[in-house]
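Below sits my pick:
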Amino acid sequence: MKRTEPIGHQGWRQLKRGGNRRPLKAKPEGDVPQPKDHGRRSALVARLTYLIIGLYALTFALLSIQQHDGFGTNAFDLGNMDQAVWNTANGRWFHFTNWQGGHSRLAAHVEPILLPISLLYMVASSPKTLLVLQSVVISLGALPAFWLARKKLANDFAAVTFASAYLLAPELEAANLADFHAVSLSAAFLLFAFYFVDQRRYVLFSVFALFAMSTKEEIPLVVLVMGLYVVFAQKKPRLGWAIAGFSFIWFIVAFFVIIPHFNPLKASPYLTRYDYMGSSPRQILFDFVFNPGKTIETLADPMKLDYLRTMLQPVLYLSLLSPTSFALAIPDLGINLLSNFQQMYSGGAHYSSAVIPAVIISAILGLANAQRFVRAFSEALAQPITYVLSGLVLILSISGYYQGVVLPLSDHFPVVTSHNRLAQEFIKRIPQDKGVSAGSTLNPHVSQRERLYLFPDGLDDADYVFLDVTASPHPKDEGSQYTEIQKLLRSGKWGVEAAKDGYLLLSREATTTQLPEEFFTFTETRKPQIDNSRKVTFGNSLRFLGYDLHPKSTKLSGRDAYAQMTLYWEVVKPLQKDLWVTVQVAASQAIIFTSAYQPTLLWHPTHEWPVGEIVPVEVLRVPLQGVPAVDVLIGVRSGADPNDASLRLRPDLSEDLAAELNGDGTMLNLLRLRAR
């Protein structure tokens, strides 16, 4: 007669009485049979997780595309990446010209994953392919987070919570919407790699570890830590040291051989972000080890401490309960915190892509450790505590997401304007086999060509110059960009191919240097509806009528909060010479930003304005970053030097408004912007 497996308390009694029977092998923890209702609930929870992942991927893919179509992407780095991938797809591996530091992506970063990614261009050759891929891959990282939490915590609610906490991390959203970076994909790959190494499924671990390491040169250091996990946590020293050794060799070859070989400076260009510690990797390492006081002082920066808080607070600091797994964050966290480049420790862009998976993994294992601690005193309390702590993680994650993602997006939701759509008329006129020097926001829209440059680079080699004078002039300012354009038009080597509404297409074959009237339409307005009316006359000739603010609220959100302004002006008496507008942003009486030149005043100077014409002057970026509030001041000067206070015109104000003037009585305090 076939023996059945004893189940439950009665089965234990039967087994105990059969003293000469062989004890049955215990089933692995993950294979314990569950009641039917529990199995159905787990299946529903899994489907819910898949739905959340799908909604995330779709939402951020559409947002990324909308941002690109609205010319919110840039040369650094979507233009760079798209040109490199397009060239790779066409047999010129890693080749790009859109950067002064070399003509290979390998001069900047070691990203062999661009090779398989380039195969996607055989299906859809577009920078949008990179944006969609990034959103999809990042979203899939929630799967191993879900699996790991369900296994370690035996709690479906906790599993969904930690999958959601991963997707809700503001640093991850920042990476997703910051153009495209190969390293952003590492967030998902590292989660898959850790899950499979934890399951001792080393073949699948190797696949995802290789994917992760191929996204950037420092990621092998994270995999190295996983190798140490295999050594000390799983007691497999031979395998663990092999993983750690292979990862370390990959890092050494990538950082000390490949990048120096392809970079003209024979070193990583990003070492300058640590030049306060030394000029070479050896000096930086020496300073780090033997000058701990400087290191501690650097790490104690309030902005860096806040950076740590914003990542750990959403997971209730549970990561600190599993220091061995939180060690996965050390390589990238150290790189970010020791840097003097603020964006690396502000939680913006792609710099935290490899930190977030470590935070999620260690938070799951930290809660598992808390479970075991509670279980030692009371088995009955283990799961209730898990529900409570998971619920707090979910609440904090949603709150952090609202503050760090939803509100900033509501301030500047990407839109596609008629001005944006007009750019396509110019793009169609540029042959793909011609070299282009383009402005930053136009750059990724013309990047699928062998020769591409960020204006004003590459003018000796380019056949076309493509600019939007109403957009960001990065890396120049508005005044410098204007001067460069005038030099080109006077050189006799460039002519105006087409120009309209601030767009300017120059070519070597065009003969006219005269800008058509339709180029200047961006300086015109018809019967404006001014949101904030404020009539103030500067001198006796130029009247300020008021301003529009975008977003309309004076409370801004996000780590990189900023506003855009449209100032409305009117000439009340004929002007014999040009007047200039100065916009200053002050925090605690210190000037942190100055806009001295605006495109409207450069291309349509005030001496050309007829009396009574209302002219809009755009100020693209009024920053509120790292401070709780700023004052926005405006003034008018009669000369080109923004630093010469003697050139400023006094505003005609009644006595009751005199308090709104600055110390010398020339700058009007227009409004105050606050952090939300």
